[in-house]
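Sample 1 of the test manifest.
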Amino acid sequence: MSEQFKLEIVNPEKSFLLKDDVTEVVIPAYEGEMGILKDHISLISFLKPGLIKIFSKGAEDKFFVEDGIVEFKDNNLTILTSSIYNIKDMKKDTIDTILRETEKNSQDKEISDQQKYLADQKTEVLKSIN
Amino acid sequence: MASLDDLKKRITSVKSTQKITKAMKMVAASKLRRAQESAERGRPYSDKMNNIIVNLSNSITDKDNSPKLLLGSGEDKVHLCVVMTSDRGLCGGFNTNIIKKAKTFFQKIIDEGKTLKIITVGSKGYEQLKRAYKDNIIERISFKESKNANYFDANKVGKIIIDKFEKKEFDVCTIFYNQFKNVITQIPLDQQIIPLKASETKNSSSEDNYEFEPEEDEILSNLLPKNISTQIFKAMLENSASEQGSRMTAMDNATRNAGEMVDKLTIQYNRSRQAAITKELIEIISGAESL
């Protein structure tokens, strides 16, 4: 039995990524990082800003997401997200711009605790890849 | 009868109009391809989103406490209608069809004694509605600057709607847009987004027990606002494909009509030219005879 399952990442504009030889996916779920292997129980969760790590045969891809929803069912993992970037394609300037914006947002007194938490999370992740 | 010079002028002017409509048709055709592609590529997202929501709402046991966006405010007094049209004209019946559909709906609501509120997206819709429903229009949005439909714009509209819903400014929200079927056919649609009408209530295969993290209602309350933006984005994509398709057909017709007109005018021009020559000949001959 192979240990592979199917992964599809969709954003509003198009189907972003489609792979059917994935062995493990680590997602930044709302309540902490979560690794998904084959035959995981059906699951629905949403994402906080962080890194998606995709392991397939001998390859590892990393993506930065700002938000999203995850559904896992019958060995099909679907990730819906409105903002996703491949780490390899991210330029330092882009990261810096997002970082600066996020930091400014989290200083804002108007926002709720939850939003602040998410913004801080984002800052942390961005700093780590920078 | 028009003089030869006038006819000539008219032929040139019709010809130059034909050039314009032909060019517009070409542009619409190439834009259509792109718009159609992005409409098709955008479908998986909204379909999947819909699926997840159907799955979620099926597994919710405590129906009374589920988020308001799903159930609605429990009343049916104030209707918010989001009419989505284009920013540019010259696209045949595209805008008129949406407006016609919307107006029938408005009339029904007013006849039932309910309050009507309108948000127009796209400037053409506002221009057509402002005469009859000026007091009902509470907001007008236009994305003239953005070239293609993008999610960012859709999100803005979604935020406005949710904001108004939370302030209890309306009970039911319906969006109007043209669904792209093919180049010749676009179907004006009304779609209710608040409270959500699960488009297909599949016979709930409740054997799939999902693990939720965090709780169902928390996920739902996070997901539903996104779904609204997604639905609006879908409508925008469908709309832009429809607009280009409709423009293409309209311009194709216009080009053909202009061609017919040029043919007719040319015949008329040649006839009157010949008549003038004959007249001159007769004059000369009768002049010579009388000598």
